[in-house]
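Hello forum,

I keep getting stuck at the same step: I have a sequence, I want structure tokens, and every attempt I make locally crashes halfway through. Rather than fight my setup again tonight, could one of you with a working pipeline run this one for me? It's a single chain of 181 residues.
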Amino acid sequence: MPGSLADHLRQMARNNAWANARLHAACLRLTPEEFAAPRTGFFPSLRRTLNHILIVDRSYLADLKGPGRKHPVDPIPYPDAVDLAAAQAETDRELVRLCDELDDAGLDRVVPIDRRDGVAYRETVGAILAHLFQHQIHHRGQAHAMLSGTRVAPPQLDEFFLASDAPRRDAELKRLKLERR
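Reply #2:
Ran it on my machine without issues. Output:
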């Protein structure tokens, strides 16, 4: 049903993939040294910040799909910006597929979350997805600010991604191997 929470989260998943692709495309214009250079932020480089986003995305996706979250030992599993961008794009497509399969009843399903601290966390799929998108926006903002301190201008990430503006996004979504829904 149009206008449902599930519909909103499907739109958020696409917006998320679009914003990640724009941010990664800008970072691909940096040299490897610039990408890894120390910067001011919670994770002190673009490379560390963008790897953190990917790690968290994959962790929550594993929780949402069932037991089996893997806790990475390496905080930078993808030191190369090209490999990281490809891994994030595939993870974003996986998140879109997961959201496309959900309905409002599925959003109320409660799943365990493995955070390795001994607490038995359980949360609804809808709440996990809302948190995941908020997490993405938060850290993308940090990466955006870091990028503004480089020779590469940070991309626009907060353009309209509404139904009335969607035709302008179709080409970008197609390039990301996604469709408007």
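Residues 5-27 form the longest helix (23 residues). If your local run keeps crashing, start a new thread with the error log.
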